[in-house]
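does this look right to u?? 6-O-phosphono-beta-D-galactopyranose version
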Amino acid sequence: MNDFPKGFLWGGAIAANQAEGAYDEDGKGLSVADILPVGKNRFDNLVLDIQQGVYYPSHEAIDFYHTYKKDIELLAGMGMKCLRTSIAWSRIFPNGDDATPNEAGLRFYDDMFDTLLKYGIEPVVTLAHFETPLSLVKRFGGWKGRPLINAFARYCETVFRRYKGKVRYWMTFNEINHTHTLPLLAAGLFIQDEATKLQDMYQASHNMFVASAQAVLIGHEVDPNNQVGCMLSLSPVYPASCKPEDVFASYQLRRRLLFYSDVQLRGEYPAYFERIRKEHNLQIAMESGDLELIKRGRCDYLGFSYYRSSLHEDGMKILGNTGGLLGKKNPHLKETSWGWPIDPLGLRYVCNELYDRYQKPLFIVENGVGAVDVIREDGKIVDTERMEYLKDHVLMMGEAIADGVPLIGYTWWGPIDIVSAGTGEMKKRYGFIHVDRDNDGAGTGERRIKNSYYYYKQIIETNGRNLDYAPFAK
Ligand code: BGP
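got this back:
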């Protein structure tokens, strides 16, 4: 059994738009998440407004906005050392760039962070988790619009100052490399024209690089104790065969994903980007000083999500979804009910890959399994599939540490059931705590402890030493 370092941050991760609800309360403005319906095709035929008669899961989500005190008490019962969540930008600046911040929104996060700290839980905060204010999308086309850079800087400075001394770990953009696969969520891009798609995506990426660098610099200036990381989806890509073309195509696809951390951690555009730029005739508008800023504002650590691995072959169309890329089936791996291959060794593989590439601390800020829960007649939820997934991934994380990879912590995705980002479903449950709410919003919202709750508690208590879940599998 491999040892986890003292002070290792065991915890959980959620996002404001998937948990809070209260989408228009206390002055909050709309974000891109608030116009997404439920379903596998929730990104198709979108209209950038709320439509009558359509159910939007983010509007109520699990009502964390009102229940956070009780929910945090439950999370604290597992002994969690940290909780990752995001600040909803449009709760602080309803239109993204208002003249003054919304005090009610600021107060909400003050109370939430105080509640966490009361239980000794360190808040880990994502500044933008799939929540671009809708008004910025409508007025400036999302992140392809240059004005977002200053708006974001002001928002960041506001929250860095307000929560100074309460929050130390920050991340700029959630899964920024999903700009290609989930453009609306990752970059506030409402793509309607295939012809300008790539141009818009790379322009948005550039603006986000500048904004991220600025956030790092402001974060350090406000409080030198701040650690500001980047955040990417980094589930690995394997070649589907040993055919050299497949191997090279997979390498190039991986690079396209790592492009974001290459810039955010190394502080410059990589050499291989020049060819991409030429081949697609990209005209990226940059202002003087941008590249210098990107160089100075390198991120302190790499936060990433890991759910599954995928296979790639030459010429294969890339299917976008959250948490990784879907492609061919891997005959060596079992899959979840949502068709995501389960690959614990892949976690060890990426930890090594990423540390070899960057030599920066890594933080696994999302890992988990979406599954259907069954409430037994005795009221128990014996979620063995979840415990098995957790065990296998913790084991591989221990191996990665033994390989020499410095890991800051591990935050299980969705320690309490929340709305799925990919499909908007509630049925796709990640939690150790069950929430009585269905895909259509029905349900009492009641919380119920699953057996995995006690299992994760044991893992945290023993700092990853006792991974036996047999006592909880009945
Ligand atoms: C990541 C996102 C999360 C999240 C998770 C699981 O891509 O950062 O917001 O929800 O994936 O995906 P899903 O909710 O689609 O199951």
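The first helix runs from residue 16 to 19. idk if thats expected tbh
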